[in-house]
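G., the chain you wanted modeled:
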Amino acid sequence: MALPDKSSKRFYKAALAQASVWGTAVAVGAGDELIVNSDGNPGRKQAYEQADNIGRVMAKDGDLGPNEAIDFAPEFGSKIGLGYSPGAIGSAIAALFGIVATPAAEGDGYKHVFDWADEMAAFFTFVTMRNGVIWEIPSCVCYKLSLKMGNGKLQGSIGLRGNFLKNDSVINTETEIDALTPEAEANFIKVQHGVLRMNDEGDTALDSGDILETADLQLDLERTVDAQISLGGNFISRPKESVFKHTAKLTLPYATAANVALFDKFVAKTAQKMDIVFSGPLLGGTTHYALSLGFPRMKFTAPPDVKLEDIMKNGLELLAEEAAAAPAGMTGHVRPYLELVNLRPTEYLS
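Predicted structure as tokens:
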């Protein structure tokens, strides 16, 4: 089938497939299609530079500079959100966390557990489309996951850093685009499915008594990565990492004496543990689709933000740290982790 040449994004697809050699693209195919409302609008970052040699009143020539890193962030926002069967997005998230356990039977489904590794290892080939052409980024890493509440769903984006963009791929052609399918079309994670729980790190396991009514939520989990071009190369080398940045911003819809008292925990630097748990529709028998994000140790980075208004809200900001030992209810976890229950029997990374 000929590539579409239309004026609407409705006719175009984007995909992500795990690669093995930095700088060498792999073919995308079934299961690799991204369910997103924006591909992040990547573009080739290579400037034309005019020569500035002496003896020329006006430049007569120039050259293309190196391919700079391409930072872009496909979004699952607008009217959609993250799905319980996230497919290629799930692979990117798994790569960001870095440690991926073998899926274990969970009732009629499977549980996938991702833990935060010292460094990430997996990277991907990204493919998207424009009028009559295929754009390919041979290699990119997922360095950031952003999640928020929006339109009744868990929305967000995946931050990717790519090496360069080309429009003449012989690896990803019309054949590969035609073969694209997602892992699932919908089955989105809804706000009504979720609860946020928090208590002191040293307290008992989180339960219904620790639920914080939450009107707004912004989570950012990020690896700080570099962008270096080495001798003999015309695009960035595989990025290396430095510090982690894990932040949470919460808005509690009503300021109460109980949650305003968190001021004292900020002053005392009292570590917290927190999780966000979503339980979705039945996937079979009595087993539900589910997603949970756990933070074994967090610290308030500012006192509660409570403004004098007709209806007073409470804003909280926290930063994740590594726990000395797994707290109660988070066995085996000392860093941020993610658990996902769905029907996929295979790992999200090969």
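The CA atoms of residues 14 and 128 lie 4 Å apart.

Shout if anything looks off.
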